[in-house]
Amino acid sequence: MKVEFAPLNVPLARRLQTAAVLQWVLSFLLLAEVCIGVIVVWIIYNYWFLYVPYLTWLYFDWHTPEQGGRRSNWVRNWTVWRYFKDYFPIHLIKTQDLDPTHNYIFGFHPHGVLVAGAFGNFCTNYSDFKKLFPGFTAYLQMLPFCFGCPLFREYLMSVGAVSVSKKSVSYVLSKEGGGNISVIVLGGAEESLEAHPGKFTLFIRQRKGFIKIALTHGAYLVPVFSFGENELFKQVNNPEGSWLRTVQEKLQKIMGFTLPLFHARGVFQYSFGLMPYRIPIHTVVGRPIPVHQTQHPTLEQIDELHQTYMEELRILFEEHKGKYGIPEHKTLIFK
Questions:
Q1: What is the pTM of this model?
Q2: Where would you find the membrane-spanning parts of this chain (predicted)?
Q3: Torsion angle, CA of 133/97/215/314, rounded to 10 degrees?
Q4: Is residue 24 helix, strand or coil?
Q5: Burial class of residue 56, CB neighbours in 10 A (0-12, 13-18, 19+)
Q6: Which of 73, 125, 195, 224 fits a 20 to 30 Å CA distance from 296?
Q7: Strand (E) positions, 49-110?
Q8: Partners of residue 224 on adjacent β-strands
Q9: Which of 142, 148, 154 is nearest to 183 (CA)?
């Protein structure tokens, strides 16, 4: 394989963008393990004055990720996030105004490998979110096990992430007077295994829990499609039925998550590495679907609203795919 090296005369801004994305990738892949290692070191070397206060506080703070989290504008304003956004770059596009007196569920698609679009748009203060949606607060809902990791949970909550448990989503959508947005990556870990360039396979047909909770709270539904998300990385070929896919699916069932075997470019060369490609991400927020509050929705009501949501998601994709270089014959595949 011929290795293509990065030129030496790269502008400083591009170097900083690369460094910002590198730390983001490493934080997703290694930060949790590092945080656990820190706690273990504290215990092994009996730094009781560190681990006793922290673990005591953790005991009383355990449910915070299900109660709106603890975001920090100081962390969300770190300059590193501006360089992170500009690396791809990441864009947020609004198609229709939202009423701030309502709460909303943003169904984010596709998952991609590391959900860069969702993080860049909803977990930092450098996106256009506040300008496009004034009066709203967005909460990126993540797998609950992420918040069981000491120290790492503090980092996640500081950028505005919270648990995706039913209790947590209900807390976000229960705000009196509206103005809250629950951002849920509906395809989950299962969909990440389909995150290949040029593919648009979404795991949505059996995902109905968000529909029920939307009906229960009267939260409006909004489909969101992030064009470019699946183009950031390549994956080792893992078709359904292959030994690799079988192992990945078993890990997902046991652990609740799985990690695709992905690769893209490197820091100093463009041929191989774990850095995502510099491909623009356009996250398009679709039209809101009004939802009438129903405390005890029937299966028929859930199925009807679920079908409406899938139709709106397909319309959103078809209306905008041409603007972002997707061939006319490409369409969404729902699983």
A1: 0.94
A2: 21-45
A3: -110
A4: helix
A5: exposed
A6: 224
A7: 90-94, 104-109
A8: 108, 285
A9: 142
